[in-house]
Amino acid sequence: MTELAAVLWDMDGTLVDSEPYWIECEQRLVEEHGGTWSDDQAEDLIGSDLFVSAEVLRAAGVDMEPVDLVNRLMDGVIERVQANLPWRPGARELLAECQSAGIRCALVTMSWRRFAEAILIACPDGSFEVIITGDEVAHGKPHPEPYEAAARGLGVDVRACVAIEDSRTGAASALAAGCATLGIPHVVQLDPAQNLTIRDTLVGVTVDDLRALLA
Q1: What pLDDT, on the 0 to 100 scale, is given for residue 215?
Q2: Which SS3 state, helix, strand or coil, does residue 87 take?
Q3: How many C-beta atoms lie closer than 10 Å to residue 102's C-beta?
Q4: Is there a contact between 183 and 198 (Cβ–Cβ < 8 Å)?
Q5: pLDDT over 90 at 47, yes or no
């Protein structure tokens, strides 16, 4: 069995239950501009680079420059998480166990740095050694760059890392990078794939379970 070098965590929908906030803010923004926004459209964007989301929203009728659009969305979601930050079931417990066991962790999110920092305030100090955000990579998920960058930042082999993801886009990124990947579907279902283990919840998942994924 390969030794577990690090756990690479997705954020939205995996660590915290912020996806409904993003969907709500997308819908409100589209409606303000006279368009319509369906659940299917929202689900297709889960896990995507925010500039990709911006272009889709612009096509749906939002007449804003991409940077302004992304910042408007983030303002809305930050306001909501500051009022109520819902953690995904089992996520805090597994993160705490990783910290107790000395397992290094990185956060790999397509949200931008200022939004990630709003989430990190609620995490125990030292939870993540490396933070990779969507505004700091050239290619967002499903490209492998975000997970490759996280492993490189930690100085470890990406193939000795376990990624935890909730979205198809995120899982594709982690698998393309070479991570053993634990999929915890949330808003959308995940399709079976080689090197992808799917579970209903993080509740009861332990560090030993993560180690076993590298067998």
Answers
A1: 85
A2: strand
A3: 7
A4: yes
A5: no
Res. 32: pLDDT tops 90: yes
The C-alpha atoms of residue 3 and residue 97 are separated, in whole angstroms, by: 17
**Closest to 166 in 3D by CA, of 40, 85, 49, 47:** 47
Alpha helix positions (H), the chain = 19-32, 39-45, 50-59, 66-83, 91-100, 113-120, 145-154, 168-177, 207-212
Q: What percent of the chain has pLDDT over 70?
A: 100
pLDDT of amino acid 100: 96
Given a contact cutoff of 8 angstroms between Cβ atoms, the answer to whether 210 and 4 are in contact is yes
Say how far apart CA 42 and CA 46 lie, in whole Å.
7
Q: Which of 154, 38, 30, 51 is nearest to 103 (CA)?
A: 154
pLDDT tens digit sequence for 59-101 = 999 999 999 999 999 999 999 988 998 999 999 999 999 999 9
Are the C-beta atoms of 184 and 200 separated by less than 8 Å?
A: yes
For 61-83, give the DSSP string: T--S-HHHHHHHHHHHHHHHHHH
Domains of the chain, start order = 6-17+87-212 (3.40.50.1000), 19-83 (1.10.150.240)
Helix axes 145-154, 168-177, angle to 10 degrees: 50
* Average pLDDT over every residue of 2-11: 96
* Dihedral pair phi/psi, residue 94, rounded to 5°: -70, -40
Per-residue pLDDT averaged across 183-198, rounded?
A: 95
Q: Considering the entire predicted model, what is its pTM?
A: 0.87
